[in-house]
Amino acid sequence: MDKKPATKEQIQEAILSLPGNDRASLLKWLVDMDRAVWGDEIERDFSEGGAGTALLDRVKKDFVAGRCTKWD
Fold it and tell me: Fewest CB atoms within 10 A around its CB: which of 25, 39, 49, 58?
C-alpha cells in the first residue's frame, strides 16, 4: 500500500511541535542541504555545456575587449 506524502501544513505543524533544540538541528540540516543542492546546480550550470557557459563566454569576451571596469 502506497503511503501518501505529508502536506506542507502537516510538516509545518510537526516542526512546530518539536523541542527547540530539534528545530534548530532541523534548520541547520535544511540550510546545509539547500547549500549543497545550490552548489551542485552552480557546478552543473558552469560546467562545459551548462546553462551558464554562454554567460561566462560573454563576460570573458567583454573583459578582453576592455568593456569591463574594476570594482572598488
Answer: 49
